[in-house]
Amino acid sequence: MKLIKKLLLALVAIIVVIAVILIVNTLRLSSKQVDPKPIKEVAISDEVFTNLSRAIQFQTISFSEDAIPDSAAFNGFHSFLAETFPLVHQAMTLTKINEYSLLYTWEGADISKKPIILMSHQDVVPVDVPTMDMWEAGPFEGKITADHVIGRGTLDDKSSLMALLESAEKLLEEGFVPAQTIYFAFGHDEEVGGGKGAKKIAEYLEANGIHASLTLDEGGFIAEGMVPGVDKDVSIVNVAEKGFASFRLIVETKGGHSSAPPRENTIGMLAQAIVDLENNQLPYRLVEPVQYQIDYIGPEMPFLQKMAFANPWLLKGPLLEGLNSHTSTAPTIIDGGVKNNVIPTVAEATINFRILQGETIESVQKHIESTISDKVKVETVGFLTNPSPSSSIESEEYKKLELTIRSVFPNSVVVPGLVAGGTDARYFYGISDGVYRFYPIRISPDGMNRFHGIDEKISKANYREIIQFTYQLMRSFND
């Protein structure tokens, strides 16, 4: 009995010690938000909505990596930009890269300062024809309602492109001269990997000896009601992105008649390989940009949730799972069979992976091959890219970006993190000290499916905010 009593007392002591550690760590977790500074807001006329509407009407669609761009749509869009932003086109040098991508150079007053690069992209994804009637207005009509501008590209990504130029035009009207050179880099094929657009812009800049202090692209946003436990808007600045790779699984057999199926059926073998991959996914791991998320979002949580963020050593598993901190596995395409009584000789499936930092395309392929039957052939397919590096959140440039966000949106919290999707920014790490992803597009839980989906639209109020932000950001680099 004495032994049992001692063990119970020891167990209670351990529990008390752990509880004290949990509580102390939680109480020590303080907010990392910087204080906003007063800003003088710029007046923004309703004309900006007409300009955005007109931009939407150019069907600058990227269909595939190999598709030839619609020259009439892209060149028409370029002429529209020249007409709409005359001061930009007078004051800046415009270089066309690979015929359709645009690089504007706004010369700074101080050549000793490193330039900054502000990015967006001109292209949009196609619209599924069967969904046309489900839109509030035609996807390329650019309809302006009392509260919104509707159309493909309002969220991804003509709103940021047009906002950058609206802000630059306004600054030029005011006689503003940037301290350092500003480049506006607008690729034409981001939706299919950016290999002929942004990648070529980066190569051009590198060949001309350009190295920037900051590059800013899409890929971050203002999350409204999307972070459980946080009652404020969350401005997500992504400092890195996952890699992207798809692999085709191929099963080849002699086929046969469905009345006498072999023990190993072509489609059955393929299905088993898919199940094996889904049941044996790569592990959740803590990487630097996810650590940033934990450090910055944790202090904004209610006490019990804050405890999980303050003590990742104990609650690491659920935390990393909630933050999607692993290489994800997603079957996306399957093909096989021609008739309901014929076992096919070939069946194929495509599996897409979003690769976490610390892993590579090659390591993912090894994982696939070690997980599934060696009777299934594995090969890469389509666009491939490894995970990006992680940019610093301690640099002067990041601090300016952070302060601008807090000043324009003082009721939001700024959180650096990791984006699972891909952006053109991936190509600029070699020519920039820091690469970040953020424009203040507001996204709520019910609005997320509008990206690449039905009824894409942006509120007028939010579009004004994007212009206000880009205007203030450019000004901030002169402070």
Any idea what the shape is?
globular
If strands are numbered along the chain, what order do they take across the biggest sheet? 1-2-5-3-6-16
pLDDT averaged residue by residue: 93
Kindly give the count of domains.
2
CATH homologous superfamily heading of the largest domain:
Zn peptidases
Given the structure, what is the number of helices? 13
CATH architecture of the largest domain: 3-Layer(aba) Sandwich
Structural class assignment: alpha/beta
Unreliable spans: none
Helical fraction: 25-40%
Percentage of β-strand residues: 15-25%
Q: At the third CATH level, what is the topology name of the largest domain?
A: Aminopeptidase
What's the alpha carbon Rg, rounded to whole Å?
Answer: 26 Å
Total DSSP E strands: 18
- Terminal CA distance: 73 Å
Name the CATH class of the largest domain: Alpha Beta
Largest sheet: 6 strands, mixed
